[in-house]
Amino acid sequence: xxxxxxxxxxxxxxxxxxxxxxxxxxxxxxxxxxxxxxxxxxxxxxxxxxxxxxxxxxxxxxxxxxxxxxxxxxxxxxxxxxxxxxxxxxxxxxxxxxxxxxxxxxxxxxxxxxxxxxxxxxxxxxxxxxxxxxxxxxxxxxxxxxxxxxxxxxxxxxxxxxxxxxxxxxxxxxxxxxxxxxxxxxxxxx
Length: 190
Hints:
Elements: E1 6-12, H1 30-46, E2 53-56, H2 60-73, E3 78-79, H3 94-105, H4 114-128, E4 133-138, H5 140-151, E5 166-172, E6 175-180
Parallel strand pairs: 1-4, 2-3, 2-4
Antiparallel strand pairs: 1-5, 5-6
InterPro entries: His_Pase_superF_clade-1 (IPR013078), His_PPase_superfam (IPR029033), PGM_Phosphatase (IPR050275)
GO cellular component, one term: cytoplasm
Protein name: Phosphoglycerate mutase family protein
């Protein structure tokens, strides 16, 4: 990696507990903590001898995943609100959130509500504003936003990153490029 190349490692958070009306920001499930620990060990080996920045969406499942990764890398996670999950629509109840996201995943960005389109632009701008070696703990849709942008695609769904998977991008003068996609889980939002 040259000093002018930026390398972004986007980690999808581990499996979370079930979202409810009373708990709209769920923490990791025990399985999610195990997934995060496995990814942390992988990143510690991959990044041995290097000191990246560690950013995390401010939601509970991402901050918990980032804390586990941070412990392995001896880093304190920095909050990164731009990489939070796609915004809720006004008044959207939890019971319809998964169905709405599944519907959105079948669309192109041009067919999305204005607030979600603007959010996606913000995700790309935030990623393009990063430099150096950065690990970002984020969510399913923001990672898809970046993969689609790098591929020049308008589709909301580009792939189905499994929990705690790592998708790697490079950024330079030519823009954002996918170096490698994280492991997939085809059953997610199927």
